[in-house]
Design brief:
Helix content: 25-40%
Radius of gyration: 20 Å
Order of helices and strands: EEEHHHHEEHEHEHEHEHEHEHEEEHE
Bound molecules: 2-succinylbenzoate, magnesium ion
CATH architecture of the largest domain: Alpha-Beta Barrel
CATH class of the largest domain: Alpha Beta
Length: 371
């Protein structure tokens, strides 16, 4: 396959409701969409890099810069038979995993569409509906948190994740447990603690949490291992897992018992599939994370999350929790049993992209052709 042209778009969409983590509060999402064209077929990818370099060092603007100046030219010069050949061809570029992933995943979508197959089939998934949970941000009050949990449980979601930070942790979990009993519950700290907080984090052991996600530094493995030796709650790593190599190290070191998989965080599907298989072989359960994606990125997530070792509910919720309207029709919906069906409206990611909505949200557009 030879890619003939690539389009980049920078979009901004208002969030249906603000989202607050230990990094701060967001009211909208700015992101890059990548479209790859070959033989009259288009593949789409969504870059998970955010406006600010808080979750990761990448931003929407670094992703744009690296895609436009380096990654797209490398792709346009490439002739390949399988989307797995894209990642090694980009290896000269250090880092910028989110920028790489957006383009690599667009190529997978294109490849699936050319074969007339759903994306899940070329990824080795099953297309089964995906057990789904929600990620609930930091609220203005504990009562609002309790009310949000009630609303999400009523919608059917299979587990609740709440964001924590110093000052919004043990009390928040205590209130949710008191109001909601044995609901499957976990917390995500987005790297807001240090090992000095181990006693505070150990206090969370009393609440029978499914896991604590990324309590310590984004690039740390050894401190997480030290923490896991001191707490009973399973540690799950998100930010730290940027490659299969790091994941193997983390598992061997006892730094995590569960892994959050986000292809956007690790350069794309090739590495995410290898991580899925590594975790399966080590008996480590995985779940699919989310980055407040639009329906395009969310569709990608659903296809991957239908692989067999995604045994825990993912952060893949209905469109209405994020964007109203979403960029796709019909929107992603959660079913009464708390699963979300994998989109099946055609080959590839299987969604109808509403081009007028994409155009209305686009702040910048460029097209790069092979010379
Ligand atoms: O840490 O999982 C995270 C959103 C943006 C950046 C990082 C994270 C998140 C979420 C939201 O938790 C998950 C979602 O519903 O998309
Ligand atoms: Mg996380």
């Amino acid at each position: 396959m030879k890619i003939e042209r690539v389009e980049l778009r920078l979009l901004r969409l208002p969030l249906a409701r603000f989202f607050e983590t230990s990094f701060g509060r967001s009211y909208d999402r700015t992101f890059v969409l990548v479209t790859v064209h070959a033989g009259g077929v288009a593949g789409w990818g969504e870059c998970v890099a955010e406006h600010a370099p808080f979750y990761s060092a990448e931003t929407t603007e670094t992703a744009w810069h690296v895609l436009e100046g380096f990654l797209v030219p490398l792709l346009l010069g490439l002739s390949f038979g399988d989307p797995r050949e894209v990642t090694p061809a980009l290896a000269r570029v250090r880092g910028h995993l989110m920028a790489k992933a957006a383009m690599e995943m667009a190529v997978w979508d294109l490849h699936a569409r050319q074969q007339g197959k759903p994306l899940w089939a070329v990824l080795g998934g099953s297309g089964r509906p995906v057990p789904s949970g929600v990620s609930i941000g930091i609220q203005d009050s504990l009562q609002e948190l309790v009310d949000r949990v009630a609303a999400e449980r009523a919608a059917g979601y299979q587990r609740i994740k709440i964001k924590i930070k110093p000052g919004w942790d043990v009390d928040a979990v205590d209130r949710v447990r008191a109001a909601h009993g044995a609901v499957p519950l976990m917390v995500d700290a987005n790297a807001a603690y240090t090992l000095d907080d181990a006693d505070r984090l150990r206090a969370l052991d009393a609440f029978d949490l499914m896991m604590i996600e990324q309590p310590l530094d984004y690039d740390d493995i050894m401190d997480h291992a030290a923490l896991q030796r001191r707490i009973r709650t399973p540690v799950c790593l998100d930010e730290s897992i940027t490659s299969v190599r790091v994941a193997a190290m983390a598992i061997d070191a006892g730094a995590c018992r569960i892994v959050n998989i986000k292809p956007g965080r690790m350069g794309g599907y090739r590495e995410a599939l290898r991580l899925h298989d590594l975790c399966a072989s080590r008996g480590v359960p995985v779940w699919h994370g989310g980055m407040l994606e639009s329906g395009i990125g969310r569709a990608h997530n659903l296809h991957l999350a239908s692989l067999p070792n995604f045994t825990l509910p993912g952060d893949i919720a209905a469109s209405r929790r994020y964007y109203t309207p979403d960029l796709i029709e019909p929107p992603v919906e959660v079913q009464e049993d708390g699963t979300v069906p994998v989109p099946a409206d055609g080959p590839g990611i299987g969604v109808h992209i509403v081009e007028s909505r994409v155009a209305a949200a686009t702040l910048r557009h460029t097209e790069i052709r092979s010379s």
